[in-house]
UniProtKB/TrEMBL annotation:
Protein name: GLPGLI family protein
Signal peptide: 1-20
Residue spans of biased composition, Basic and acidic residues class: 257-271
Keywords: Signal
Entries under Pfam families matching the protein: Porph_ging
Tagged with keyword Signal: yes
Start-end of Gly residues biased regions: 234-252
Signal recorded as keyword: yes
Region of interest called Disordered, as start-end residue ranges on this chain: 221-280
InterPro entries: GLPGLI
Tree of life domain: Bacteria
Length: 280
């Protein structure tokens, strides 16, 4: 009986260890530099386990779920365009923090492929003695300069986590709120709950590991000439795949028309995201 009891405790410990906690943040953004009245708001998840955390858009998981169900049913290219358009996200990246190695890895799609880099800039926080209360949590103030913005974060030690949304980490608690000095970006904790484990992320295209500075260069190349950039990926291949975050349906359309639509779409995306969260 004693052996059975010990075995049960081990199994329970493994199950508990495998669980994760999901923190839901409301992300408010002003991504268009020419229109600061254009305010975007969406939810993002920070999933935390014993050894790592992941930050990503709620719509990302919903889109992945729709695409997975469509492919499994043999639909291939038969996406519901209205449904997919309704799940578009400003937060197209995902961020993973490895607690053991203290590494932060950023992933985002450029053209057909996923580019990933390890963050090489440490966050140097100045912790204040100022405290207040946000919701149910007693929080403390901290400030840092990162990515060309001045950030104020409010963290709590009421929860047993030392993490935060986006790349924010290194504080002795969980970030409940973070906002830049211009009020153009903010993250606000809304709720949290337990989940069985981390979700499966769809990955289309190659995964290309680069340095952060190289990622920025590739991103600029894509914006300046998306046609040439995409033709350079996978040894060319034109536009049969429907482009980045496309809905498929390339079919037998005229390559010149597809190229024109591609360039127009990328230019529109660049305009709508001309005020990124990281300015440098």
């Amino acid at each position: 009986m004693k052996k059975i009891g010990v075995f049960a405790m081990v199994v329970l410990a493994q199950i508990t260890f495998a669980q994760a906690n999901r923190f839901v943040y409301q992300v408010t953004m002003k991504p268009n530099a020419s229109d600061k009245n254009d305010i975007k708001t969406e939810n993002a998840y920070l999933d935390i386990s014993a050894d790592k955390s992941m930050f990503y858009s709620e719509n990302r998981i919903k889109r992945d779920s729709v695409m997975r169900a469509n492919f499994q049913s043999g639909g291939g290219r038969g996406f519901n365009r209205d449904q997919m358009e309704g799940l578009r996200s400003i937060i197209n990246y995902s961020i993973e923090k490895d607690k053991k190695d203290q590494k932060t890895t950023y992933k985002d799609r450029i053209g057909r492929d996923i580019y990933t880099y390890e963050e090489d800039r440490p966050l140097n926080w100045k912790i204040s003695s100022e405290t207040t209360k946000i919701g149910d949590y007693k929080v403390q103030k901290a400030e840092t300069d990162f990515g060309g913005r001045k950030w104020t974060a409010w963290f709590t030690t009421d929860l047993p986590y030392q993490d935060g949304p986006y790349k924010f980490s290194g504080l002795p608690g969980l970030v409940v709120k973070a906002e830049d000095s211009t009020g153009e970006y903010s993250f606000d904790l809304m709720k949290n709950y337990k989940i069985a484990g981390f979700p499966e992320m769809n990955t289309f295209g190659n995964v290309v590991k680069v340095k952060r500075t190289d990622y920025v260069k590739q991103q600029e190349k894509y914006k300046s000439d998306p046609s040439a950039f995409m033709n350079s990926q996978r040894g060319g291949g034109g536009f049969a795949g429907g482009g980045p975050r496309g809905n498929g349906g390339g079919g037998n359309q005229n390559p010149a028309d597809m190229r024109k639509r591609m360039e127009e779409r990328v230019k529109e995306e660049a305009k709508n995201n001309s005020n990124p969260i990281e300015l440098k």
